[in-house]
Amino acid sequence: MKRWEDSITIAAPASKIFAFVSDFTKHGEWGGHSLQATKVGDEPVAVGTRYATTAKLLGTQREESTITDMSSPSTFAWDSVGALGKVHHWFALSEQGGSTTVKKGAEFVTPKFLAKMTMFKISKDIPAGLRSDLANIKSKMEA
């Protein structure tokens, strides 16, 4: 349905950035939505690992997020399922000359009624959130 993506260049190696953004428990350190994540199960983190998450976006959102791609150091992706429906999220990293271009995106795969009714607001909030998240990641990685 709706898809958004933004990018930023960070003066840091892709491996360092990948390690930071692929750690779900650290998402609250850079995410503007106060994400809290708790791993479900005790298996090693890999594709298929699930997290129970709570975020602040249009109120409190409780979701389950599942890692769908973990290709170090280039791609990290996950699907979140909750009150708004199913949303696919991703990071794509490309290193060149000591800097890394980081793309962050989100796409509604299966929006629920609430998402459809609030899409006008969501369509403003998500792009601003992507920019803010990327700026926060840049700040942390270049500090």
Overall morphology: globular
CATH class call: Alpha Beta
Annotation, overall tally of beta strands: 7
One letter per element, helices H and strands E, the order comes to EHHEEEEEEHH
Instruction: Provide the number of structural domains.
Output: 1
Q: Distance between the terminal alpha carbons, to the nearest Å?
A: 37 Å
* Percent of sequence in beta strands: over 45%
State the low-pLDDT regions, or none. Answer: none
**Helix content class:** 25-40%
Produce a short descriptive summary.
Helices cover 29% and strands 45% of the residues. With 143 residues, the chain is α+β, with helices and mostly antiparallel strands. A seven-stranded antiparallel sheet has the order 1-7-6-5-4-3-2.
Explain the overall architecture:
With 143 residues, the chain is an alpha+beta fold. The protein has one domain: 2-Layer Sandwich (Alpha-D-Glucose-1,6-Bisphosphate, Chain A, domain 4), CATH 3.30.530.20. It contains four helices and seven strands. Strands 1-7-6-5-4-3-2 form a seven-stranded antiparallel sheet. The N and C termini lie far apart (37 Å). The model has no long low-confidence stretch (mean pLDDT 93).
Indicate the topology.
Blueprint: E1 3-10, H1 14-21, H2 27-30, E2 36-40, E3 50-56, E4 60-71, E5 75-82, E6 85-96, E7 99-111, H3 113-117, H4 119-142
Antiparallel strand pairs: 1-7, 2-3, 3-4, 4-5, 5-6, 6-7
